[in-house]
Fold this sequence. Notes:
Residues 23-94 form the Mur ligase N-terminal catalytic domain. By secondary structure, the protein is of the alpha/beta class. It contains 15 helices and 24 strands. A hairpin with a 2-residue loop joins strand 23 and strand 24 (475-478). Helix 7 packs parallel to helix 8, helix 12 crosses helix 13 (416-427) and helix 14 packs across helix 15. The radius of gyration is 24 Å and the shape is globular. The site of magnesium ion (MG) has 6 residues, from helix 4.
Amino acid sequence: xxxxxxxxxxxxxxxxxxxxxxxxxxxxxxxxxxxxxxxxxxxxxxxxxxxxxxxxxxxxxxxxxxxxxxxxxxxxxxxxxxxxxxxxxxxxxxxxxxxxxxxxxxxxxxxxxxxxxxxxxxxxxxxxxxxxxxxxxxxxxxxxxxxxxxxxxxxxxxxxxxxxxxxxxxxxxxxxxxxxxxxxxxxxxxxxxxxxxxxxxxxxxxxxxxxxxxxxxxxxxxxxxxxxxxxxxxxxxxxxxxxxxxxxxxxxxxxxxxxxxxxxxxxxxxxxxxxxxxxxxxxxxxxxxxxxxxxxxxxxxxxxxxxxxxxxxxxxxxxxxxxxxxxxxxxxxxxxxxxxxxxxxxxxxxxxxxxxxxxxxxxxxxxxxxxxxxxxxxxxxxxxxxxxxxxxxxxxxxxxxxxxxxxxxxxxxxxxxxxxxxxxxxxxxxxxxxxxxxxxxxxxxxxxxxxxxxxxxxxxxxxxxxxxxxxxxxxxxxxxxxxxxxxxxxxxxxxxxx
Length: 498
Ligand SMILES: CC(=O)N[C@H]1[C@@H](OP(=O)(O)OP(=O)(O)OC[C@H]2O[C@@H](n3ccc(=O)[nH]c3=O)[C@H](O)[C@@H]2O)O[C@H](CO)[C@@H](O)[C@@H]1O[C@H](C)C(=O)N[C@@H](C)C(=O)N[C@H](CCC(=O)O)C(=O)O
Ligand SMILES: Nc1ncnc2c1ncn2[C@@H]1O[C@H](COP(=O)(O)OP(=O)(O)OP(=O)(O)O)[C@@H](O)[C@H]1O
Ligand SMILES: N[C@H](CCC[C@H](N)C(=O)O)C(=O)O
Ligand SMILES: [Mg+2]
């Protein structure tokens, strides 16, 4: 594609050089530049892409888009735009052929439940005969082909390239998690969404967003985008959790049709007769979009919400009810979400990704309902992330657990002892010292919990779910809670046999 054609996608403030140059690619990272590429320089939080323009040119960039005019060699074409993150998204969409305009695009946002809800919607749409693309925290998927990920929502260029591949591989619908970071940092600006799903809004990411209002505003962007005209012939639709206090804000922001779902407040789609058990949860769905009885293999009231969101989305897209029911009932689990670890032990071990106060409260409440013995919780909090979550998670763990082992999550560049101190501030007012212990080493912490557990106890290992690494400093070390739990159980059995 010629630079001239590509630049039609954005408003240009100043420009120079030969715009008839043919582009071979586009990137925001000088290290990924190859000969013939356009480099878009972004002023980031850690560094400034404008400082890497020289390196990009050395690696073969033929054109540069920037926010401030830099002096460049005469053979380099250039353009200045107001906001390079926004421009990057629009340029990337155009470069990869505006793939979101050819796909049924379903975006799911909210603090918790995005991975679970997208996974459920994807299963339903696959069962209805559609080839589905999935984008999210655990992995991206094109049909059955799994692609590893580094972010929940990819940077705009990577996202548009991936959507382009989906088109080539015959995907009809793409279900994606849309994180608040992605919305705030313009990663999805080049996407045309047909449906937006809101799961819930509770405290997280206040290291990044200035306030809860700012966090909410980021999420509203997805719903506001439904007001833009579309040319796919699909009626745009918003699916909103009516039980969340922010529901009305989402409804006000949204364009197109609106369907609400819920358990407590009046909603278009609702659940009754909810029965949570160790193997799952059964309930009836009723309301505007049909009714059915469901036996879900995922447990907890929170998964009733995830299933209601998925049911509403799929029914609004016109998927027949019997297909939705079968598909939801066939889902055996989502990796790292309330995942049971079974190595033949006589107590229950559950690995879960709860890393927010609300997530932790939901799983501990559920586990409490199902525990005949003691509830032992192993958890920590991520470093370089919202510090306000730490004491909140501490008090929640204290409220529901019989015993807590406070450990490291991904400490990143923070001192693990300081993170743990933050958690303990919430624990101390609620429990005696003999009811918790601190073990910074997560492997040892898991081992301790396993060695402590007796018949009928439940051990919850929270925070890292599907993650197969631990980030200490800036390095990633292989680490998987599920594997560690199995090893600890086996080691203990070996000890007993000796
Ligand atoms: C806060 C945040 O999201 N930051 C993202 C942002 O980084 P940044 O703008 O600070 O980038 P930077 O490192 O300052 O660099 C600025 C620019 O210079 C470029 N550069 C830099 C070095 C170099 O040698 N050459 C070069 O060209 C970089 O490519 C970049 O374009 O843009 C980068 C490029 O896309 C992202 O990798 C980075 O994600 C960081 C690593 C991150 O951890 N993000 C997390 C918090 C995140 O996005 N999480 C959400 C999920 C959250 C949830 O829902 O739980 C997600 O969607 O994954
Ligand atoms: N609907 C829900 N409401 C509250 N908590 C939930 C809900 N669904 C899941 N959880 C809890 O939150 C954790 C994360 O769930 P999930 O991965 O589906 O959410 P997510 O929004 O994708 O999270 P992330 O933003 O980190 O990717 C689960 O492991 C569970 O503890
Ligand atoms: N996407 C979330 C994941 C958190 C997972 C948890 N294990 C942690 O490291 O805090 C984040 O980056 O905040
Ligand atoms: Mg997720």
